Amino acid sequence: MKNLNFVLSLTTRDNDYQMEQAACATAAALRSGIKLQVLFAENDSILQSQQLLNIIQSRPEAQPDGIIFEPVGGTALPQVARAAAAAGISWVVMNREVDYLAELRKAYRVPIFSVSSDHEEIGRIQSSQIAALLPQGGSVLYVQGPTENLASKLRTAGMHAAKPSNVQVKIIKGQWTEASAYKAVSSWLKLSTSQQTQIDAVIAQNDVMAMGAKKAFQECPPHLRERWLDLAYTGCDGLPKTGQAWVRNGMLAATVIVPAIAGQAVDMLARAVQTGIAPPERTYTVPQSFPTLDKLAKTEPERVHAVAGRY
After folding, report:
1. Per-residue model confidence as pLDDT tens digits over 94-108
2. What dotted CATH number matches 5-118+260-285?
3. Strands, E, within 138-286: which ranges?
């Protein structure tokens, strides 16, 4: 049996979750003797489309057996997917609900499927964390991912659906990176209205954006800085060396552990190509709160009491 050749297309290098995706996919490929090429689209959907089309349109002997990708934009590249399938290249979408999969699975014999985190559940977990952090209610500054990104939309929808009625949410937008959240929060802080806005917690759709927001608040004038830095900050992704570590050392109050799925996608695609048995159209992983919601509810009053004691 020939060695398989896959391409992994990720959104950006400037995100710890995307780098973890690359690492776990590379490890899975090494275990199975698969050649893996990793591409980064630098948060540019046009670049991502061009990168993949160049690979699909290469000489037949240079084409990969499969493409695994996490879309940058909102469309998940249906025309590129069709071109790949027509060329006999398997197609796997990560972290996106995609309408075109059923049609392509009927029309082509190559494996075509998706593997995704349950993004609505992530949003619901973040609302449960808000409830634990603000049992009396309050106001949250919510740092959202790109508006056109479906994962961001689903996380926001899940958050709103489960949000306590006594919590108000102010949304600002980032691009999944620390730098983008830093820029968004810095711009918001320059508005006169931000100084009069009561904020009780900062919730970000990933951990690095939570840290970018915190960095922006650290650069406030001294008379405002302590007010902002005493807030609870939470994120999402929960990687051991970043999000979980930041919770343990107190830089974040909580995160949501979202399993990196690229390694699982590599393993599923390899089995599908080798056996000819197609996986289900959609597979979901299960996120979880870190710390657990019970533990967060118990420890948060201690943090609030310690902060109050300083004033």
Report:
1. 998 899 999 999 999
2. 3.40.50.2300
3. 138-144, 167-173, 201-204, 232-234, 255-257, 282-285
